[in-house]
Design a protein that fits this description.
CATH superfamily of one domain in chain C: Nucleic acid-binding proteins
CATH architecture of one domain in chain C: Beta Barrel
Number of strands of chain C: 6
Helix content of chain C: 25-40%
Number of strands of chain B: 0
Strand order of the largest sheet of chain C: 1-3-4-6-5
Structural class of chain C: alpha+beta
Number of domains of chain B: 1
CATH class of one domain in chain C: Mainly Beta
Distance between the termini of chain B: 81 Å
Helix content of chain B: over 70%
Oligomer: heterotrimer
Largest sheet of chain B: none
Mean pLDDT of chain C: 84
Structural class of chain B: mainly alpha
Largest sheet of chain C: 5 strands, mixed, barrel
Low-confidence stretches of chain B: none
Number of helices of chain C: 4
Chains: A mainly alpha (249), B mainly alpha (64), C alpha+beta (150)
CATH topology of one domain in chain C: OB fold (Dihydrolipoamide Acetyltransferase, E2P)
Shape of chain B: rod-shaped
Radius of gyration of chain B: 26 Å
Radius of gyration of chain C: 23 Å
Order of helices and strands of chain B: HH
Mean pLDDT of chain B: 87
């Protein structure tokens, strides 16, 4: 078991294997995404019932919450790939970490804007410097920082390692985002869906749409990330013979 | 149907949220795909130019 | 793992540990400042933040809301279970404002009354359809856990 995993890890570490493997995987992920996204949107907008307090405005949740989860999920993946890049100096891990940053930034941006659009009618304000909102904004800046640092250094591989280090340090922000609503008084409410206790404060008729949308964003990220990494592989490995062969036909 | 578009009076907040979300989703499907295509096309062009140069080089040699 | 990699891993670990410790210390020191609001109990105990303006958060007491019929002036009591403070406000209220709802008001204390210049609504983390909320009310369950079991 361990040996198989280790072999996989090393094989995927080869740009060529990664390029082939992801090329085969992308169509499947894309189909899964289209199906879950269409189903999820239908459920969120047409099937899920009106909320007893917030009326129809709560439907923003179905794009806000999956995006927020993606912002955190992508950061974790970026940091793990960053760690692999720093310790093992694996080229593909560097590319994965760097490719994560702009996608994570996009999802975090969606989280902030949709949260603001939800906050205005419900809370009565577009923005409040409470701990949850501020730490989420900081997450966006971390993503932008990783992208900026990577762009600022000439050597692609050194740049990736520097950016990976920044990404790793920023991991400290993740528990702060998650627990901000517990540790401090905030305008943002506590967690509705609790992953570990299995207890949820959402009616099943509403939860279904949220879970489908969450799956859709995961598939979407899979397609976006793999394709971004493929582009980076082609650019950075353009002199490799297998890339040259690709261009031949 | 108009009820649906009005979103209980929250249309101004709900629809922009969904629009932004979908715009980002579509962007991140199209942009990396175009990037791969663009990179491959560029590499092909470069290769063709190299071949052309190599061929003319050979001709010059044979003439000399 | 070869020693070079082990050393790199150790360095990254130490760096993370150091940063975490620094951030934890800073946030603990800033605890008061990070919290968005204080509670009515804090006011009763005289734990009022420095400066004129501050925020207070709590639940709007049932049957305490008095509205002017011809203006946007409103008075209501806010409680956190341990203390209560009267809030006086003139202006537009968020859609979620109602009795029993959590709110955050910004303003200052004048003669024992909290003069607010901004009232924000805080909603809880529960989501359910109106029929379910109605049924729960009828059954008189104190804390609605709409999913029932899990």
């Amino acid at each position: 078991m361990w040996k198989t995993l280790k072999r996989w890890f090393h094989q995927l570490g080869s740009p060529r294997t990664f390029y082939r493997f992801s090329g085969a995987l992308i169509p499947w992920l894309f189909v899964a995404m289209v199906i879950t996204l269409a189903w999820g949107l239908y459920q969120s907008l047409l099937v899920a019932p009106t909320d007893y307090q917030q009326g129809e405005s709560y439907r923003i949740l179905y794009v806000h919450v999956p995006s927020a989860w993606m912002g955190l999920f992508i950061y974790v993946l970026m940091a793990v790939s960053g760690l692999i890049a720093l310790v093992w100096r694996m080229k593909v891990a560097e590319m994965v970490a760097i490719a994560c940053a702009p996608i994570g930034a996009a999802y975090t941006f969606v989280t902030l804007v949709t949260g603001s659009l939800w906050g205005k009618p419900m809370w009565g304000t577009w923005w409040e410097w409470d701990a949850r909102l501020t730490s989420e904004l900081f997450l966006l800046f971390l993503y932008l920082g990783v992208m900026g640092l990577y762009a600022a250094i000439e050597d692609r591989r050194k740049a990736a390692r520097a950016a990976a280090l920044l990404a790793l340090v920023g991991v400290v922000n993740l528990p702060i985002i998650h627990y901000s609503v517990v540790w401090w008084n905030t305008l943002h409410q506590g967690a509705t869906v609790k992953l570990f206790s299995g207890e949820s404060h959402m009616h099943p008729s509403m939860l279904k749409a949220l879970l489908i949308m969450t799956a859709a964003t995961k598939f979407h990220f899979g397609v976006a990330l793999l394709q971004s990494v493929r582009a980076r592989i082609l650019q950075q490995e353009s002199k490799a013979s297998w890339v040259q062969e690709l261009v031949d036909d | 149907m108009t009820d649906f578009w009005q979103m209980g009076g929250y249309a101004l907040y709900v629809w922009p949220s969904y629009a932004l979300f979908l715009a980002v989703v579509v962007y991140w499907l199209v942009a990396p795909w175009l990037e791969v295509k663009r990179t491959l096309r560029k590499m092909k062009q470069r290769k063709r130019r190299q071949h052309a140069r190599a061929n003319t080089g050979e001709q010059h040699e044979s003439q000399a | 793992m070869n020693p070079k990699r082990k050393r790199r891993l150790l360095l990254v670990g130490l760096l993370l540990l150091g940063v975490s410790a620094a951030v934890a210390l800073t946030l603990t020191a800033l605890k008061e400042n990070v919290s968005l609001f204080i509670t009515p109990a804090d006011i009763a105990a005289g734990r009022i933040p420095q400066g004129n303006q501050f925020r207070v958060g709590g639940i709007v007491v049932a049957n305490s809301v008095k509205r002017d019929s011809d203006s946007l002036h409103i008075q209501f009591d806010v409680t956190d279970g341990a203390g209560t403070v009267r809030v006086d406000y003139t202006g537009i209220l968020p859609d979620l404002f109602r009795e029993g709802q959590g709110i955050v008001a910004q303003g200052s204390i004048e003669n024992g009354i909290f003069k607010a210049n901004e009232v924000l609504a805080k909603h809880d983390e529960k989501y359910m359809p109106p029929e379910v909320a109605e049924a729960l009310k009828r059954a008189n369950t104190p804390a609605p856990h709409p999913t029932g079991a899990q």
